[in-house]
């Protein structure tokens, strides 16, 4: 079942907002067995909306549109759909009832909101239980077009509770089976070369996709059809054999969630001592709700003075080896473990760039030390030239290095 | 100049990643005078790529494609463009040289990476100085199609340094004149109501756009055409009169850059003590190159123990008022200033959510204390229900609060 997602709104086209609806919808649709073949963002423009429906109707079975359903003048989706399908707007009392229920709790009904109860005559109207813009569902030539609000929480509610169940009942699509592996220690190209034979010998219908993120590669093995589950499991075993220890996890989770789960399961606490990552590891870890269960704090020691005064790094180590050195990374990790009173620590010191590099220690040189109780690993990484990417990579590598120690 | 953005990659269509590239590109293109009329995401599928170029070539002047340029088998954009434009791949030594320069610092050249140096014969090849996938630029029928990598930092680098300058040189779009104001103390709707008359009386062609970011609103007044500069200045003066002190800056810069510039100009140093922001202020500040000139470090005191042991917050204050309180925020800021030995400090303590709220202190309650030498401001903010947004808002508010004190 081929599906297209269309988001309508000028604010997307001038880059004022990031369209997060499409990814959410695509994820849910994929899991429900629908194949999303394209997504589009277009303006609040009648001709463009009609042209887009024309084009897509030749290629897909289902068109899901969000946006352009607000009560103000610039929202024209409903009117345009009437023109496209040759129908007209009519007042619907049941929609008005629903609108009154929705708004009763927080505001009174004004004229613009009341006008939301005008809906196209020849379509299925689905009540929006969390907002004032009704959902309209058009069946035409064996295809379906649904128009729904673009407000993220409204869209999510109506997709999960109204639209996905109806689409599944109507089309009964084949299940999408997938397994995700988080792989460490390979670049994307090295991993692809390692898996070349495996990939070439995958049966018809199977796919292997690579999604690199700094320091890790996310690998996705997938196929459609419930009846291919055994085959999938068989190939998962082959992959496990080929990758062995390189598999960091078989879950589709970022490093900060994997580390958080591992720490929580083991009842361990964590602290960080960050120089070149500047607090980003702490930030990534605390972006996860509930992280206060295992994360106690961090010392961002951007200046040497802070490394000495707070983390108790020896001035001699700084003088002798420099801030970016194994000795300093180790002392930072020890200091963090002691003064934060934690079971595990991650320490980073490096040259994020663009300035600060030398011949001996070019931009991208990073020492990372991780401690788990009295075990200690210190490792040097040579990253790239770009500050933003170096900060993210060093953060991921630090978390992965600790995950490795935790087993 | 009508422009379309096409992002290529199955990972977008299964909802594995959110496409943030399109919004970033749309924003930059708009500012450069190009009108983005649509964005599309399509799969790594040759027919779909060709059909999309066919369709778009009838509607726009410029097609910017990202993605599908990796070294692995699922990446087919380059090959498909050859088929579409009736050319073939040829090995390019200068691209290989560039690839060697890019990777030399952190890894060795393998065969798949070497193959990145195959490029279409009949196109302009632009070196990618930050990655291994070259950029290809096709001129055809007075139109332009550019294919570039989808890795966000690579895309951003090549857009800013290579593609936008060339597009501007080629098409010379009517200058897009704009003035940006960073406005504090208003919600988006309150600001819109305050500026209603001003907005209604803007001359033909002028626009006013609101971009709310957590804790601030970015206001953009714009018009096309160099000859309207005087008119623009006249309306800028009106806006300045209407907004007065609410204007935090007249530069299109994020708070961490504004604060960094101000600190640097005044020769001041900064440290942070972060609880609910979990290191995000330190991370934002250190994301700016050169921040080591003014930023000395941070204590992320996620647990009470760290507030007491490292920042020397009084246990009595924590017991009597709780961690989220004026007293604790003040003591954290004092502690940070003293132990980090800095001129200025920002301290945050609050309930980011989703758990941890009480009737008295619901999720979103945040105390922020800022110190500048012996001056001290402590303020309570009631933010929203969403963790991610609360962390960013509190971070921005902390930096703005300190900017206010610096004058």
UniProtKB/TrEMBL annotation, chains A, B:
One of its GO terms (molecular function) is hydrolase activity. Keywords: Hydrolase. Residues 4-170 form the MoaB/Mog domain. The keyword tRNA processing does not apply. Belongs to the CinA family. PANTHER family: NICOTINAMIDE-NUCLEOTIDE AMIDOHYDROLASE PNCC, NMN AMIDOHYDROLASE-LIKE PROTEIN YFAY. This is CinA-like protein. It comes from Dysgonomonas hofstadii. The lineage of its organism: Bacteria, Pseudomonadati, Bacteroidota, Bacteroidia, Bacteroidales.
């Amino acid at each position: 079942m081929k599906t297209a997602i269309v988001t309508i709104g000028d604010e997307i086209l001038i880059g004022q907002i990031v369209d997060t609806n499409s990814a959410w919808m695509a994820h849910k649709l994929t899991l429900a067995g629908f194949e999303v073949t394209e997504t589009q963002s277009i303006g609040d423009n009648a001709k463009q909306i009609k042209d887009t429906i024309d084009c897509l109707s030749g290629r897909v079975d289902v068109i899901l549109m969000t946006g352009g359903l607000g009560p103000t003048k610039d929202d024209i989706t409903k009117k345009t759909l009437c023109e496209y399908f040759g129908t007209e707007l009519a007042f619907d009392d049941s929609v008005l009832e629903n609108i009154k229920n929705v708004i009763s709790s927080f505001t009174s009904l004004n004229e613009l909101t009341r006008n939301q109860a005008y809906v196209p005559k020849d379509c299925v109207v689905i009540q929006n239980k969390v907002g004032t813009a009704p959902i309209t569902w058009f069946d035409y030539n064996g295809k379906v077009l649904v128009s729904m609000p673009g407000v993220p929480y409204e869209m999510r509610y109506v997709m999960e509770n109204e639209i996905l169940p109806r689409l599944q009942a109507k089309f009964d699509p084949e299940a999408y089976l997938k397994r995700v592996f988080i792989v460490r220690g390979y670049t994307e190209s090295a991993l692809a070369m390692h898996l070349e034979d495996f990939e070439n010998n995958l049966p018809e219908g199977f796919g292997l996709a690579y999604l690199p993120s700094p320091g890790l590669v996310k690998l996705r093995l997938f196929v459609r059809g419930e009846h291919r589950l055994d085959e999938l499991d068989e190939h998962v075993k082959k992959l496990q054999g080929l990758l062995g220890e390189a598999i960091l996890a078989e879950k589709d989770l970022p490093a900060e969630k994997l580390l958080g789960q591992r720490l929580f399961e083991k009842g361990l606490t964590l602290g960080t001592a960050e120089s070149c990552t500047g607090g980003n590891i702490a930030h990534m870890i605390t972006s996860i709700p509930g992280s206060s269960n295992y994360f106690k704090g961090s010392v961002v020691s951007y200046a040497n003075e802070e490394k000495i005064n707070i983390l108790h790094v020896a001035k001699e180590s700084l003088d002798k080896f420099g801030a970016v050195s194994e000795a300093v990374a180790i002392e930072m990790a020890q200091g963090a473990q002691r003064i934060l009173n934690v079971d595990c620590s991650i320490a980073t010191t490096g040259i994020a760039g663009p300035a600060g590099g030398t011949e001996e220690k070019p931009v991208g040189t990073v020492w990372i030390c991780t401690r788990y109780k009295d075990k200690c690993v210190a490792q040097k990484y040579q990253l790239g030239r770009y500050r933003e990417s170096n900060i993210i990579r060093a953060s991921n590598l630090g978390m992965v290095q600790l995950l490795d120690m935790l087993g």
